[in-house]
Each structure stands twice: as structure tokens, then as C-alpha cells.
């Protein structure tokens, strides 16, 4: 009983920090709707909204990109934040000092998906696109994979396990150089890719249920469920451990996530058949916008049938992020991070960060939708 109360207290403390930070930085948890003539907006779950003026003029519009997160912005930020508390005492002061940066920037790779060439494939891998996905046959190293399939095929079907290996190398180099800004940026990105590798729907061509008439299941599993039920999860995963084979750890995460895919799809379809479409969806107000979402009752029953699956994958992500951060630091020679903990972005660096993020808002090309 005491452990449950303690876990709940820790989780509420962390959640309140994220909430407070969001309110301080942005003034709200959700982007504000542009000022002007009031519109009535109903977001159809997944892709389009119907916006209408009071005079009855309705038009279909694509949902804003900020409503298309992977793992959900909420979950990605929680995973990076909680991973900090798995680190040993020699790393904790530095990462604790910059915990807000690691939390806020956990979603940067998602923001870059439509603006940076080559970013989108780094978030997934379609294991079912390959005829030889057994652990003993699918090439684990990128060079071997390109020799067999070619760069274009790999980019088409996703790169996440190889991207984790590359980002791990980049973070190790940043530690060696004691480049604080680089350490923080790459560590935040690495946490994102690791979290994506632990999502079952990031391991299949049927990533949004579009092949089984279950459109929208991607956002349902990785955004809606964590937002509703993560306060009940136990995130005390233990201290970070050194990974003697980070490459194997990345692939193990991908295959473990893929093994859970059948349950993700089966139970959603089973529950839909039992309850019907009318009980499957509901409406909620978010920032004065009426949004069509999976109903609380449908979400609860689906979550129960998964028997803790979302919690297990989030816990695995938290522990794995901590393990990789720790491994990178050890492989870099365990540099003293105490002096680096005092680092603050200069005014010019802050402006550069802001301008870079602003550039990501420009949707330059399309990438596959996950909601």
C-alpha cells in the first residue's frame, strides 16, 4: 500500500512539473486558436476537421500538425523526463539541471518529420515488409542491410533500429567533446527514437490500422491511452545499466514491440464489434474546440484487455533511454559532468534554437500519417 502511494506521489510530482512548465513557457497546454471570427470546429478523429461559421458555411480542413504526435507529445516528454531519474549520481546533477530541456525537446524529431529530409523514416521499421525478419537473418548493421536491400528500400520501410545506433554514436561523441548543447540535443533525440522503437504500431506497414479498417488506432494506442491512464502506472524501473551491445538492445526492443502487435489490433476490433461505432467515440472540449475522440468507456475496456501492455512499453522505454544515456557516457570515458551542469544557453544560442524550431513549422513535403 505504501509503495503504491509513493509511486502515485512521484508520478503526480513529475506530472505537475510538466504541467507547470508548459503553463510558464506557453501560457497553456494547447496551442491557441488564431484570433478572428469565431468558428465551431469538430475534429474528425484522425485526419480532417469540419469548420463552420455561425452562418452555416462549413468546409473540410486538415487537422493541424501539432495534433499528429508519435507516442503522443505527452508520453514522449514523460519518458525522457522519467529516464533522468534512472541515472547514477555522477550523471544526475547535469541531467537534473537540464531536465526541462530534455523534456521539452523530446518531441523535436516529430516536429522535423515534414520539414527535414530523411527524418520521417527514422521513427519506424516495417518488419512485415521483409521476407527474412527472423532475428538470425535480417541484417542488424546498416551497411549489411544496404548491401542486401539498398538505401531506397530501407528508407521506404523505416530505419529506427539503425537510427538508434547512429544517434548513440553521436551522443558518445558529444560527451567526449564535452559539448553541452550537443549533448542535450542528441540525448533528447535519442530518447525519442528509443521510445518509438517500443511502440508496436511503429513496426508494421499497418501502422494506423489502414489495412484492417481500424484507421486511427495509432493515435489511440500511443496518445489517448497514456493520457487517460498513465497516472496509474508504476515508473520506478530501477537504475540505468550499461549495455554491452546497444545494437542488440535496439533490435530486441523492436521485436518485442512487434510481438505485441497482434493484441493491439485484435482487441480493438473485438471491442468495436461488441460495442459498435456509437459507443466507440465521444466528444471532448480542448481549447474551445469540440474534438471527436475514442470514448472513455471504450478506452477503459480496451486498456483493460491489453493487460498492462501500454504501461510495459512505456516502462521499457524509460529504462532503455536511461541505459543508452548511461552507456554513451561510459563509452566516452565518463567525463566529469559537474562543471557542465552550470551551462546555460547564450542569448544567441536561444535565438538560434527558436529560429530552427520555427523553420520546422513549414510543411515542405508529405510523410505517412500516423493518426
From TrEMBL:
Sorted keywords for this record are: Signal
Q: Which InterPro entries match?
A: PLipase_C/P1_nuclease_dom_sf
Gene3D superfamilies tied to this protein: P1 Nuclease
The domain of life is Bacteria
The record's listing under CDD domains reads:
ZnPC_S1P1 (cd10981)
Signal peptide limits: 1-21
UniProt entry tagged with the keyword Transmembrane helix: no
Drop me one GO molecular function for this one: hydrolase activity, acting on ester bonds
Name of protein: Integrase
